[in-house]
UniProtKB/TrEMBL annotation:
Record's protein name: Indole-3-acetic acid-amido synthetase GH3.17-like isoform X1
Lineage start: Eukaryota, Viridiplantae, Streptophyta, Embryophyta, Tracheophyta
Similarity remark: Belongs to the IAA-amido conjugating enzyme family.
Top-level lineage group: Eukaryota
Any one Gene Ontology cellular component term annotated for this protein: cytoplasm
Keywords, comma-separated and alphabetical: Ligase, Signal
A Pfam family matched in the record: GH3_M
GH3 C-terminal domain: residues covered: 466-589
Recorded GO MF terms: acid-amino acid ligase activity
Signal peptide stretch: 1-19
Domain GH3 middle: start-end pairs: 369-451
């Protein structure tokens, strides 16, 4: 069973949707026809049964290939011995290797500083969840490895679809992708995001309007085509959950115009991009008043609860990454999808692709990713489960003594992920914390935990992204019986007054879609207290001191649409909409200004948190 035709598709569905006969030649990668689910499944079983062995081979190949690079020569003196690598090559983060990347990107020096594969592009990592944007080398061979990974992901999706749903075989996937114009570095390399790289390098596989570099025109056209073909759509998605919510907002702002286009058979005059015009005109070829009426009827309803299911009634599931920092969007997504399953297919990054979710239909809270052992060489720095995960940020000469490889991770243990790639990253700290939850054959499966470097801190307190997420989820329960849900939030440590205090920005929404009424002060103050009460002992201790070093926590409620404005701000700074993740700890003054200028209510905790609970 296979979906025929498509509208647009992100990572994970390419082989499936395009039916590409892709044979891979790279040494470490087995070859298979991605349309052959059985062959794909056999390969998946095989590689996950030999993870330890494959990882050793991958490291050997990387070292053999790259021992003569300037970077590795500095530590290994031209040798490619794995033991020497483990002994001598230091654990690094982006700042440590930026100087090498800058030499290639800015000064035009050759790739062999870092890798003997030829660097063809630099990928812009979104960086908005952890801080600054990074430039990550990519090579043509790496493109093949990622294509192989995507085919394996298709295999998993195909086989689970086969078992679970009827009617997918004649359906289409509406998967939204947006791209920006390329930038060139002074050294002459193209700078793009990972998703843009995939699309621009495989142009022939995507519909032309995906190539439109004007996000508004592109998204408008993608939605319009999705509406015209609403009865064929069986799967709606995008890369990250936050992106899907942004698309729903865009639809809310434009549905009347789209419906009018469908009624008249004429596309709006502001769609001038030739790719969009051509693609839409093929689909919007006549007046369709009945279709426009039914869209009006659905969209005019006051509450948009279940809008995805109503507009695309054959949709079986929604596809978007919903783990890690995206977990906060689960309630909002459940609201708009009408409770459709959300498939969180993969865990990957600009640096490398890591894991595939082998149980795509499991609850978003239970998703684990099985690492694919031929993508890169993975290592893990254990984190004491009761300790502050940010402490792994220390520069410790003995850090490497604690490292374990993929075959030796332990169930129930948290680790910081390190990656060694063919493209010039060696023992590179991803800044992601993962938890081992089990094994698929001999390959470990990981739950995504959090980023290492996102913290709120006033004094010696350190609140991680995950701590904050848990505390906010607890506090919002006070408003849920009143019909509210939290659309998005962020925070910063306000040290402009003494003592400093935590500030949370909340964008609330009513399930009924009514305007937000005046908020009940007592309930909002209770939310503030509950966030504080849910934070760790150190925070509570500092709040409890007779001269407290942390002031009462503040929630600033912002008006609706604020987090879209924030997203637009970060996109204007070079972040891709596909890969955008709301920063949970805002450092940019301009971003704080944007949020502050839209505050409609400020509330403070009135209680000192109880240290004994
Ligand atoms: P980028 O390089 O911009 O694509 O961002 C990569 C980062 O996104 C990763 O290092 C993770 O922090 C985050 N990320 C990617 N995939 C997932 C996932 N499945 N669940 C949670 N976070 C993810």
């Amino acid at each position: 069973m296979r979906m025929k035709g498509w509208i647009t598709c992100p990572m994970g569905l390419k082989g499936l949707i395009h039916g590409v006969n892709l044979f891979l030649k790279t040494m470490m990668l087995p070859t298979f026809d991605p349309r052959d689910t059985e062959a794909g499944s056999r390969i998946l079983e095989d590689i996950t049964s030999n993870a330890g062995h494959i990882q050793e081979q991958v490291l050997e190949e990387i070292l053999t290939k790259n021992a003569s690079t300037d970077y590795l020569k500095g530590f290994l003196n031209g040798h490619s011995d794995k033991g020497l690598f483990k002994n001598k090559v230091p654990v690094v983060d982006y700042e440590d290797i930026k100087i090498y990347i800058d030499r290639i990107a800015l000064d035009g020096e050759p790739s062999r500083i870092l890798t003997n594969e030829s660097i063809t592009e630099l990928l812009k990592s979104s960086g908005t969840s952890g801080g600054k944007q990074k430039w990550i080398p990519k090579t043509a061979e790496e493109g093949e490895r990622r294509a192989f990974f995507s085919c394996l992901c298709d295999t998993v999706l195909n086989s689970f679809e086969l078992r679970s749903f009827q009617g997918l075989n004649d359906g289409k996937a509406l998967l939204f992708v947006l791209i920006n114009p390329d930038i060139h570095t002074p050294g002459g390399l193209v700078l793009r995001t990972g998703s843009e790289s995939e699309i621009k390098n495989r142009k022939d596989r995507y519909p032309q309007f995906i190539l439109c570099e004007d996000s508004n025109q592109s998204l408008y056209s993608q939605l319009l085509c999705g509406l015209v073909q609403r009865d064929a759509i069986v799967n709606v998605g995008t890369f990250f959950a936050s992106g899907l919510l942004r698309i729903i907002k865009f639809f809310e702002e434009h549905w009347q115009e789209m419906s009018s286009n469908i009624r008249t058979g004429q596309m709006s005059a502001w769609i001038t991009d030739p790719n969009c015009k051509r693609a839409v005109s093929l689909i919007l070829s006549k007046q369709m008043p009945d279709l426009a009426d039914s869209i009006d009827l659905i969209c005019q309803e006051k509450s948009w609860e279940g809008i995805i299911k109503k507009i695309w009634p054959r949709t079986k599931y929604v596809m978007a990454i919903i783990t890690g920092s995206m977990a906060q969007y689960i309630p909002a997504l459940e609201f708009y999808t009408g409770g459709l399953p959300v498939v969180s297919p993969v865990y990957g990054s600009s640096e490398a692709f890591f894991g595939i979710n082998m149980k795509p239909l499991c609850s978003p809270y239970d998703v684990s990713y099985t690492f694919i052992p031929n993508m890169a060489y993975y290592e893990f720095l254990p984190i004491d489960n009761h300790q502050d995960p940010t402490c792994t940020n220390r520069k410790d000469a003995h850090l490497k003594d604690h490292i374990v490889d993929l075959a030796n991770v332990k169930i129930g243990q948290h680790y910081e992920l390190l990656v060694t790639t063919f493209t010039g990253l060696y023992r590179y700290r991803m800044g992601d914390i993962v938890l081992v939850t089990g094994f698929h054959n001999s390959t470990p499966q990981f739950k995504f935990g959090q980023r290492t470097n996102v913290v709120l801190s006033i004094h010696t307190d350190k609140t991680t992204e995950q701590d904050l997420q848990k505390a906010v989820a607890m506090a919002i329960q006070i408003l849920e019986p009143l019909g509210f849900f939290l659309l998005d939030y962020s925070s910063y440590a306000d040290t402009s007054s003494i003592p400093g205090h935590y500030v949370l920005f909340w964008e609330l929404q009513l399930r009924s879609n009514d305007d937000i009424p005046e908020l009940d002060q007592v309930k909002m103050e209770k939310c503030c207290s509950l966030v504080e009460q849910s934070l760790d002992q150190k925070y509570k201790l500092l709040r409890n001191q007779s001269i407290s070093t942390i002031g009462p926590l503040e929630i600033r409620v912002v008006k609706q649409g604020t987090f879209n404005v924030l997203m637009d701000f970060y996109v204007s700074q070079g972040t891709s909409l596909n890969q955008y993740k709301t920063p949970k700890n805002i450092k940019s003054e301009k971003a704080i200004e944007i949020l502050d200028s839209r505050v409609v209510g400020k509330f403070y905790s009135r209680e000192v948190p109880n240290q004994d609970s």
